[in-house]
Every structure is written in structure tokens, then in C-alpha cells.
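The instructor's notes for this session suggest beginning with a concrete chain rather than abstract definitions. Hand out the sequence below and ask the class to guess, before any prediction is shown, which regions might be ordered.
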Amino acid sequence: MVKLEIRKLPGSPLWEARMEDWRENGDRILRLHEEHEEQYRRKICSKCSPGQRIRRDCTSLIPDCDELSCDHMKRAFARKHGKLIHQHAELHPWSVSLRLNAELEARRRAGRVGA
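After discussion, reveal the predicted structure:
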């Protein structure tokens, strides 16, 4: 079994700037999520019958829970903003670095880039 050792190295200013951009984009997605939930509660939850709440696994059915949330709300957000969420996950600076390194290594093996 191979043991993977991960070392925490101090980041360069460029790396830190990329991480900060990625975090800000994540915060933007969280704000979108909060706005979506607020609008959803106002438009959909107010019209939701008790039977629908049971089917949708609504948190309002949990005793002492005052926040409305359900699987339907989460799926609706994922459908509406799925592409944005997927792009955000793919654009993590570490993932981008791994992908670029893999592409460079593939080109080296193919003989298209000098070693």
C-alpha cells in the first residue's frame, strides 16, 4: 500500500491570489444559494401542502426546527446553477495545477515538449 504524504508549503503570492479568487467565487455561489432559498420559501414553500412536505422531506416537520428546507429545494438549486457549481469545483487552483501538470507530462511523453 502506498502512503501519500502531503506537505503544506508556503504559497506564492500568485497562488494565494488564485486561492482568494476561488474563495470569493465560492462566496458568490453561497449568496446565490441564500437568495434562491429565500425566493423558494416565499414562492413554493408557502403553497406546499402537508402531503408534499412529507414527500419532499421538509425540515419543518422536525420538532423545534424553524427553518424550512427540503430535498426539492436543493435539487432545484442544483438544476438551476449546476453548471456554475461544477465549474467552481473544477477550477480549484490545486485541481488546475494537477490537470496542467498531467497535460505537460503527456506532451513530454509524446515528444512534443523538450525535457
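Then share the key points. The helical segments are 13-43, 50-55, 71-90, 93-110. The radius of gyration is 22 Å.
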